[in-house]
């Protein structure tokens, strides 16, 4: 997934370099490169964030639960 993002940033950088002014180049790179890549990575990272949150909550619940008493 990251290789595609890196490749797209490279393409956007090449587009930005070919602009006539520096301002147009920066806006091209931000508009066509950084913005869309950040949005896509955020959306595609949602399931992993959800799994990490559930695992953290389960670990906290297990840590706060009282230890089982021994019965004889």
UniProtKB/TrEMBL annotation:
Species this protein is from: Cupriavidus plantarum
Keywords linked to the UniProt accession: Membrane, Transmembrane, Transmembrane helix
Superkingdom of origin: Bacteria
Protein name: Transmembrane protein
Transmembrane domains' residue ranges: 28-45
